[in-house]
TrEMBL record:
Family assignment from sequence similarity: Belongs to the bacterial solute-binding protein 3 family.
Biological source species: Campylobacter corcagiensis
Designated name of the protein: Transporter substrate-binding domain-containing protein
Pfam families from the UniProt entry: SBP_bac_3
Listed GO biological process terms: amino acid transport
Length: 267
């Protein structure tokens, strides 16, 4: 009986997610963002800052209106789907990678960034290619594309609760490397000169997209149209040049991450 009640509660959360019309009438859109993933999203002086925040504000302006308000709600990589299903947020802009298993639970917009798995190592270890890490311990955040790619390739992995935990474990010597989305791991050598990323393109490309509740078609359609519009006007290119590239100090080549060429098929 308890299982039936739980299932009904989950279904109710999905069924009663805020529609596009409801969001526009309320003038507020609730966006789930991560709290500690610079330069995408982080908290400074009590306020969220970063690319994801600018992205969320622009979406709010275009979809909700000039007087619309964005409510930024912190999520984690482990609870973000639950937050969406339980109608705690209207959409997710949280380094959310399209994945077949996740597609059973949420709907994804068209992608806006491409990423591969990159590997963070200590400068003193001189790792230059992935083959040198055979038989070594590679730290990975659990349930990520990095974990899947490396296990599939036969590497030894050790799971962490989150990115910062993986970084801390690497610094403590409890792993030989830390693998994750290259746009994320490339951030660490910027703040810690004892680390480097020489291995940046493991596995096939994955794609960041906006997550919405399953079946919320009107909101999803509006977001997809917004992505087309933003790509046409050069929003992502400008954001990369103004926000991401200065942060990475030229180590993240935009040709590997931007998807503007794909959006050209829409005219």
């Amino acid at each position: 009986m308890k299982k039936i009640i739980l299932s009904l509660c989950v279904m109710a959360g999905v069924l009663f997610g805020n529609s596009l019309d409801e969001i526009q009438k309320s003038g507020v859109i609730r966006v789930g963002v991560l709290g500690d993933e610079p330069p995408f999203s982080s908290v400074e002086d009590g306020n969220f800052v970063g690319f994801d925040i600018d992205f969320a504000k622009r979406i709010t302006k275009d979809i909700v209106g000039e007087n619309g308000k964005v409510e930024l709600i912190e999520v984690t990589t482990h609870n973000r789907i639950e937050m969406l299903q339980n109608n705690k947020v209207d959409l997710l802009i949280a380094e959310f990678i399209i994945d077949p298993e996740r597609e059973k639970l949420v709907d994804f917009s068209m992608p806006y960034f491409a990423v591969n798995t990159g590997v963070l190592t200590k400068v003193e270890d001189h790792y230059a290619n992935i083959s040198q890490l055979r038989g070594k311990t590679i730290l990975v955040e659990t349930d990520t594309e990095a974990e899947k790619d490396l296990r599939k390739a036969g590497f030894n992995t050790l799971g962490c609760n989150d990115m910062f935990h993986c970084y801390s474990e690497l610094k403590a010597g409890r792993g030989d490397a830390f693998a994750g989305a290259n746009l994320i791991v490339l951030a660490y050598p910027i703040i810690d000169k004892k680390l480097e990323v020489n291995i940046t393109g493991i596995g096939t490309s994955s794609y960041y997209a906006i997550g919405v509740q399953k079946g919320n078609k009107e909101l999803l359609d509006a977001l997809n149209q917004e992505l087309i519009t933003l790509s046409k006007e050069g929003f992502f290119k400008k954001a990369f040049e103004d926000t991401l590239d200065p942060f990475y100090k030229g180590t993240a080549d935009k040709k590997y991450f931007l998807l503007d060429d794909i959006y050209r098929i829409f005219g």
